[in-house]
Amino acid sequence: MRDPNPYKLLTPGPLTTTLSVREAMMIDRCTWDDDYKRMTEEIRAGLLDFAHVGNDYTVVLMQGSGTFGVESVLSSVPGDKDCVLVLVNGAYSERMVKILERHGIAHARLDFAWDQIPDAAKVEAFLAEHPEVTIVSMVHNETTTGLLNDIEAVGRVVKAAGRTFIVDAMSSFGAVDIRVGDISIDYLVSSANKCIQGVPGFSYIIARREALEATKGNARTVSLDLYDQWKGLEEGHGKWRFTSPTHVVAAFHRAMQELREEGGVEKRGERYARLNRRLREGMAALGFTAYVEEAHQGPIITTFFYPKEGFSFAKMYAYLKEHGYVIYPGKLTDRDTFRLGNIGDLNDEDAERILKIFSDFCALEEQNGAH
Question: What global pTM score does this model have?
């Protein structure tokens, strides 16, 4: 079958999937069927394997996008006496604050510049000064900018202080190797349409079993009740509480198999990192400056400043799409930027082709500006 995709996505998810992942969605499945429930259980077990954890952890699959998973955790884990500290250095950690505000959950925020990683020493000092804080929440790869935060350093501080640790690893898990237990992460959240290269439709939470069991009755919603969702999957041996995205689950099951065939998380991470370096270097040669310093650049997405005043993102977007690639606009509020993702079914040839398209566009703009 010829791949019908008219273009590839240079985005951090949804991303370009393989034809075989999309073909896995061509079968209609019943949510009560034992084969389907077995598929769900294989996904849950596989995610524990990718996270390097055993039976002291468990996996909850939650309908909806990654934000649904984050909101499920933030609205289900804290009890009435808890207070959540959010480490803020991008739009997605700001979203965590908004979720907590909306649910009326006690919280505090510790802000850092959006091009700087959270300082573990400052987190340690804050926790010492604020004993009311019981939970710390942060984003690993901030796709606002491409920044890769140091969850290991923060995790050590959080563990030493005896607090619960929540990590949004939406755009990193599956490509950045995260030893969840070693970092003492209590709840890690990611999504089907990210580095494991599935399609949008559900998020997943890798949770420390003992911590999750203690949250019974804390949830502030019905559909996003993390504990009840987990109990349903456990007692039903893979049966979701409410109608599950069966086609998406099948695609993810296939995508996990393809991740293993590629060589696992380490090999996929190497491919992403190689593509990211090449795009960053090539764009710099064309006059595009990256927002994040190379030392803190994650391997998933890079934010670039507009090269000059009067630059038209809309024209560049249209030109790229016409030539087979779609990109993301920026999310910074104070500077004009755009973002280039490099995850999904992309290879070295794509990187060279993308840079050639950018080069041609820049040359065309210069030519038009000279007349």
Answer: 0.95
